[in-house]
């Protein structure tokens, strides 16, 4: 009886790469072993082809401005709320020296960068299209994106321009943000195949840029669009962005923004969520999600309105920056991962809960395994309810 020397291909549990283990094989077993080795080699080739295709495809592409946030924690201030409305104002002594508690600088944030990081942590091939200045702050943003596994091939660096830098006045658990957008020369780069585009905050000189994005969407009918309009996009008005609204798969905003978009009078008294949802959907989006802060969120799809409470805080919130971005980006990422709309809806508040436990909009963003653990252990009343 003779033995033949050879190798056995061993497939590890967590990787697509194959290891070879030296074996001794009976000569009479050679045909079967040969078949096994050939099958495994074929499987490995198929795996490599799929991986190559995945590298040329972007699951989640965020488009929007990137900023650095400087959190200034105030201790000598107060909040004044009007009796006849929900409007509140942050008040400090005028013409005086106001002490502050601390400053924390957080790079590479903003609606779209936050979304890109959120999607990357949930396991998607995530990229961003954005503009930075040729300065130290721009480099900090780029380094931060890379460290969070976000593809930066479509980040444009513009000479003689400053990277956006915002000041966040942090008082108690909420914040007021002082914003200033640099007028970048927006241009849509040549893109790989994209499954989802997540469009959010851009400066007020971006109207023609929206037309470029729309042209890409017209030429790539399989690409889905999630739209979370920022301040200037809401100010541009529905008419100027009507084709963007019409092309939107899922739309995100809060109650106050929905009222502004639909130009509702007496906005603070008029909070008929069903009416607002129908009004937004009439502009074109297939699905609409409207958040109402600590009161929970709503989802309108196929003529049905669903409500979901917030996920209970594991500890009292530290500050609320990025809660909305976490919700909408996680909802979209779950859809990109193949979840049903109602299941994706339940993912969003979990990341919002986690984000408010940290300073800034990204530190608390969860990886998929941890998010699914929270979902598995959710309280009994954490369920979407049709209303």
TrEMBL record:
Signal peptide: none annotated. The keyword Kinase applies. Keywords: Kinase, Transferase. GO terms for molecular function: kinase activity. InterPro entries: PfkB_dom (IPR011611), Ribokinase-like (IPR029056). GO terms for cellular component: cytosol. Residues 110-363 form the Carbohydrate kinase PfkB domain. It comes from the Bacteria. PANTHER family: RIBOKINASE, SUGAR KINASE. This is Carbohydrate kinase PfkB domain-containing protein. It comes from Candidatus Nomurabacteria bacterium RIFCSPLOWO2_01_FULL_36_16. The lineage of its organism: Bacteria, Candidatus Nomuraibacteriota.
């Amino acid at each position: 009886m003779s033995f033949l020397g050879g190798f056995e291909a061993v497939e590890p549990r967590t990787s697509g790469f194959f290891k070879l283990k030296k074996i001794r094989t009976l000569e009479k077993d050679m045909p079967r072993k040969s078949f096994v080795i050939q099958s495994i080699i074929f499987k490995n080739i198929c795996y490599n082809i799929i991986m190559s295709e995945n590298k040329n495809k972007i699951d989640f592409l965020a488009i929007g401005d990137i900023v650095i946030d400087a959190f200034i924690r105030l201790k000598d201030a107060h909040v004044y709320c009007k009796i006849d409305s929900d409007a509140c104002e942050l008040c400090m002594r005028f013409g005086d020296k106001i002490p502050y508690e601390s400053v924390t600088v957080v790079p590479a944030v903003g609606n779209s960068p936050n979304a890109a990081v959120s999607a990357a942590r949930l396991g998607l091939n995530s990229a961003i299209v954005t503009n930075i200045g040729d300065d130290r702050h721009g480099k900090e943003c780029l380094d931060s994106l890379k460290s969070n596994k976000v593809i930066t091939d479509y980040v444009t660096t513009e000479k003689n321009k400053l990277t956006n830098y915002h000041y966040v006045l942090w008082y108690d658990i909420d914040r007021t943000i002082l914003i200033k957008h640099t007028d970048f020369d927006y241009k849509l780069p040549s893109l790989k195949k994209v499954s989802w585009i997540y469009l959010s905050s851009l400066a007020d000189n971006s109207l023609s840029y929206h037309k470029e994005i729309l042209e890409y969407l017209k030429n790539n009918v399989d690409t889905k669009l999630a739209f979370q309009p920022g301040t200037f996009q809401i100010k541009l008005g529905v008419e100027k962005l009507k084709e963007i609204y019409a092309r939107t798969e899922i739309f995100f905003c809060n109650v106050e923004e929905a009222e502004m978009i639909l130009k509702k009078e007496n906005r603070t008294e008029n909070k008929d969520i069903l009416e607002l949802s129908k009004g937004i959907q009439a502009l074109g989006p297939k699905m609409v999600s409207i958040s109402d802060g600590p009161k929970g969120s709503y989802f309108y799809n196929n003529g049905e309105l669903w409500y979901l409470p917030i996920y209970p805080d594991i500890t009292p919130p530290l500050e609320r920056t990025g809660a909305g971005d976490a919700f909408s980006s996680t909802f979209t990422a779950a859809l990109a991962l193949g979840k049903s709309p109602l299941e994706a809806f339940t993912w969003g508040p979990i990341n919002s809960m986690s984000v408010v436990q940290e300073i800034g909009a990204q530190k608390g963003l969860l990886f998929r395994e941890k998010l699914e653990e929270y979902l598995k252990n959710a309280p009994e009343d954490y369920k979407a309810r049709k209303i």
